[in-house]
Amino acid sequence: MHTPAKAAGARADGFWTVTPEWQGETAFLICGGPSVLDQNIDLLRGRKVMVVNSSCYRIPWADILFFGDERWGREYSEAVDAFRGRVVSVRETPLKHEKISYLYRPNEHSTLPPGLCPDPQEVWFHHTSVRGAINLLCHLGVKMIVTLGLDGGPNAAGKRYHHEDYPSWTATPDNWKNQREELGRLVAPLNERGVTLLNTSPKSSIQFWPIVSLESCL
After folding, report:
1. At what angle do helices 129-139 and 175-184 cross, to 10 degrees?
2. What does the pLDDT read at residue 8?
3. pLDDT of amino acid 144
4. Which residues contact 37 (CB under 8 A, 6 or more apart)?
5. In order of start, what are the domains of the chain with their CATH numbers?
6. Of 103, 116, 189, 197, which alpha carbon lies 20 to 30 A from 208's?
7. CB 206 within 8 A of CB 178
8. Interatomic CA distance for residues 45 and 68, integer angstroms
9. CA-CA distance, 126 to 186, in Å (whole number)?
10. What's the predicted TM-score (pTM) here?
11. pLDDT category, 156, cuts 50, 70, 90?
12. How far apart are CA 218 and CA 120, in angstroms?
């Protein structure tokens, strides 16, 4: 698989090298969509759970919190400090933050390949942190990813998230479309890796993967 070229010395020391700690496991990935409000989250206790961004407020006992936007880390720093599991984020150069394990994220978003980065110190994404989280789960060695809240847009009532809105973030008209297109680029690479992805959001606009009930995945 092609890896974007990096400028000499672009990658500094200090990035986390992911090991396959969840080899062969099923992981539950909590995204931001409002359908999470209709799920029995307590069913996931004792399982491998990763939350994205402010999903950590609803599932504070998850194993891993992944956020891909430095702005979220700044504005919700209290959530990072309070989270009991591993916190993972991305940068071009890692900060010395004792709470966060950093992965490399190249800034050549317009030239990123369509798939998954094979380098265990790096993840690829542009429009959605969910792509980065899926890449991280593949580094961890999972065989199945079950998503909650992968709705692909607001619900019928116009609610965009199962948590509070991001008051300082303005979604562009193409926001959801760009995210769907980016996630669609993962279908073939996941198949090639032998990783199954199931979506438990019943009215999701993300139609690339089977839509199932959460209970059927337990």
Report:
1. 20
2. 34
3. 98
4. 162
5. 26-217 (3.90.1480.10)
6. 103
7. no
8. 24
9. 13
10. 0.90
11. confident
12. 28
